[in-house]
Amino acid sequence: MISLCFFAASIMTPNPLLGVFFHWLGGLASGSFYVAYRGVRHWAWETYWLAGGVFSWVVAPWTLAFFMTNDLMAVLHEAPSSSLFWAYTFGALWGFGGLTFGLTMRYLGMSLGMAVALGYTAAFGTLLPPIFRGVFASEVLGTQSGQVILAGVAICLVGIACAGAAGISKEREMSSEKKREAIKEFALKRGLVVATFSGIMSSCFAYGLAAGDPIKALTVQHGTTPLWQGLPVLVVVLSGGITTNFVWCAILNIRNRTWPQYFNPEIQTEAAVGAVKKQVVRAPMLSNYFFCALAGTTWYMQFFFYTMGETQMGRYKFSSWTLHMASIIIFSTLWGIALKEWSGVGRRTKLLVVLSLAVLVGSTIIVGYGNKLATAGQGG
């Protein structure tokens, strides 16, 4: 902890290159957290999602904010009620985006669904905050650095489209049997509507962080290192997020009768329902909770590093959301390659995967360069 405090204290001025690095660490965490859920056995989705979510939305944010910032409860008590309200509300709205993301995958498939949803999330989460603040024309369109960052955002969207094209190409190369299984619920119009809703709602996380600016100022006034000024805001935003997710998962637990899974290791398998002799399996409770805790904590670390990276982006911190989305796709794609999800695909698909990674990496470099121009005084 002492070394971390020394490192934080040594960063007194914005450093966009360091900010890009922090955003890449956040993207690595976001692109990796779901791997831990692969270790959960015999639990329904709503059970392990909520179990992991307790660590994502409660344990990790409160613990790190308590130990790494000063006077957490006093800061939250002194914060303007409007800031608390909007940070919480946008967090709850973001929760709807996360829940409907699964429907997007069902109706459009992993590739097209992710490309459309994250495309909306990147665009709305990046561009609307400066528009709402009234600085889009003056600080983005009216400066060289802002124009460079805007170009990086556009290139990021191109990279997301390339990632979607790679996924579509992969699905076309699937066997007839697997293809029928994958697209049995395919519904383009319905999927696009859901993906649009999911993408816009997911971008509300960026609005929640922006609404928490007064909380950031307060925690710095209480002596918190500026690098960690976003941690108290995450407590509020994620309180809204767990509200939405808890209600929905509880509804599913009751509807699907999966609520006993939290404390009863004996689970009746779905395949045995209706059989004369019911089959019962034992869930490894300790192992399941461990992997849920690992997944949930890893998920939270994406925004832990995100708030750190945001402090290094200067007045163009709105570009942080683009860097976050791009890095998520980069590392999730690399995980897909490592887990051999792209094995056996044709040359065209492989080229699209490589192209999407190259374009997304390029977009993060361009956004970082635009921020560097601003800090060097060349963007005005």
Question: Your description of this structure?
Answer:
This protein has 380 residues and is mainly α. It has one domain (44-268, 288-375). Helix content is 76%, strand content 2%. The protein is built from 16 helices and two strands. It has helices at residues 2-10, 16-37, 45-68, 72-78, 81-108, 110-133, 136-141, 144-172, 176-182, 188-202, 204-211, 213-221, 231-255, 285-311, 320-338, 347-375, and strands at residues 266-268, 280-282. A two-stranded antiparallel sheet has the order 1-2. The chain is globular and about 65 Å long.
Report the span from N to C terminus.
Answer: 39 Å
Number of domains: 1
Query: What structural category characterises the helix and strand content?
Result: mainly alpha
**Gyration radius, in Å:** 22 Å
Query: What's the tally of helices?
Result: 16
Question: How much beta, percentage-wise?
Answer: under 5%
Low-confidence stretches: none
Shape: globular
Instruction: Estimate the mean pLDDT confidence.
Output: 80
The sequence of SSEs as H and E is HHHHHHHHHHHHHEEHHH
Q: How many beta-strand elements?
A: 2
> How much helical structure, as a percent, in the residues?
over 70%
The biggest beta sheet, please? Answer: 2 strands, antiparallel
Short description:
The protein has 380 residues and is mainly alpha-helical. The protein is built from 16 helices and two strands.
Key phrases:
380 residues, mainly alpha, 16 helices
